[in-house]
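Handout for the seminar on molecular recognition.
Each group receives one record of this type.
Step one: identify the two inputs.
Step two: read the structure output and locate the region that could contact Double cubane cluster.
Step three: write two sentences on what you found, then compare them with the reference statements printed after the record.
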Amino acid sequence: MTSTDHTEMWRGLGLDLAAHEHLLSVLGQAYADIYLSQEHRPEGMAYLDFVLSEIHGLRIQELLEAKRKGRRIIGTFCLYVPEEIILAVDGVSVGLCAGADIGSEAAEQILPRNTCALIKSFVGFKLNKVCPYVEACNFVIGETTCDGKKKAYELFNELKETFVMEVPQTKSPHAKALWRAEIGRLVEKIEASSGRKITVENLRRGIETVNAKRAALHRLNALRAANPAPISGRDAILINQTQFYDDPVRFTEKINALCDELDERVARHVGAVQAGAPRILIAGCPMAAPNWKLPYLIEKNGAVIVGEESCVGERGTRNLVSTKGTTRDQLLDNIADRYLRIDCACFTPNNERLDHIPEMARKYKADGVVHYAIQFCGPYTMEAFKVEKRLQRENIPLLRLETDYSMEDRAQLETRIQAFLELLRK
Ligand code: BJ8
């Protein structure tokens, strides 16, 4: 995938070079089939093509250079970890959730087979030594969200230092106090690790940087409400996946430039697909890179994805952190408030999500919703029933799918998607 030879760098990180080579060749082929084969792509996507081609090359080189200069590289697995606090000490945050089943077999040696594919993937990537990001990190931050993740972190900690934040499961006043205390514990950990103090000034800078990144993604999402949609869902999902790896300032600048181009497309009624194509909202589990199976199957069959109610999507980006306040504690309160508003299915009850899905369907003029759950994911497979009931009440068609990262069920999924799109076309 990369144009330069980075073999020495990968060797230095301790990667299994043969296994890593195999991963890159599989990814390169999938990327060509799913992304580069698209017609009518915005020109601004060339930046994303470049980032993806160098995702294990130049970006890792940048991280290692930053590390040599004393900056901390911190891996994360979940939206509840505030990037603002990492940026405040001039650290670099990288998302480590993985979306490929390379390494699942190794993961099954230490995890039960009926663990969700996302967990097996990040554990398998580490065990198989194919992820330069996790190797480049100083440490990683886990969180007590679902049972699978919190138990997996106990094992993961034996492979890589893992600092676990306690995420409450409700939004009661007591839970809010616990969460605010956990934010304080994270601050202590990051200050101790980096040897730098978090101040009002550097924290405010961190908040502004992340707010600007989220604002660019809000702009992108709003443009997708146009008919025809100016960008494919596949490309939008790729952008959402890339935000977890790329430098935030550069990423924001590039996405705003892409949005300028999309503004013009909307004005000229130029779409990624023709007007009248069924418009789909995806809701459910996060789609970590390179999990592109479902978006590809949906769009290959003539539909366009116009929004994602997902952690790699609007669940992750909505709501900015308030910059009001003159003390460090006030800014940390604002961070705690914003992050506790995330409506992950690990919370109970989780009614905000049930409101948010139909609200998004209306906002992006979706004809139907595809609820995506990773097999064996208790929180999202169970919540899917409530989502279904709620959407029935609102007369919004729903297709409930469960799948993993393998390609075995591809034909079966495609048949169900085709039948659903047929229904929407009537
Ligand atoms: S905020 S969705 S990133 S926890 S798919 S590992 S829930 S069994 S990823 Fe998540 Fe944070 Fe919530 Fe988002 Fe468990 Fe389900 Fe697997 Fe999951």
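Reference statements: The radius of gyration is 21 Å. The pocket of Double cubane cluster is lined by residues 78-80, 116, 118-119, 145-146, 148-149, 285-286, 311, 342, 344, 346, 374, 377, 379-380 (CB under 6 Å).
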